[in-house]
Amino acid sequence: MEDKYVPYKIFKKGELTIGVLGVGIELKGLVPDNLYGNTIYNDPVASANKTADILKKKYQCDMVICLSHLGDKYSDDKISDEILAKETYDIDLIIGGHTHRFFEAPRRYTNKRASDVLVNQVGWAGIQLGRLDYEFLARNKKFLAGANTVIIGKKSSD
Question: Staple 133 to which of 38, 50, 81, 146, CB 3.0 to 4.6 Å?
Answer without folding.
Answer: 146
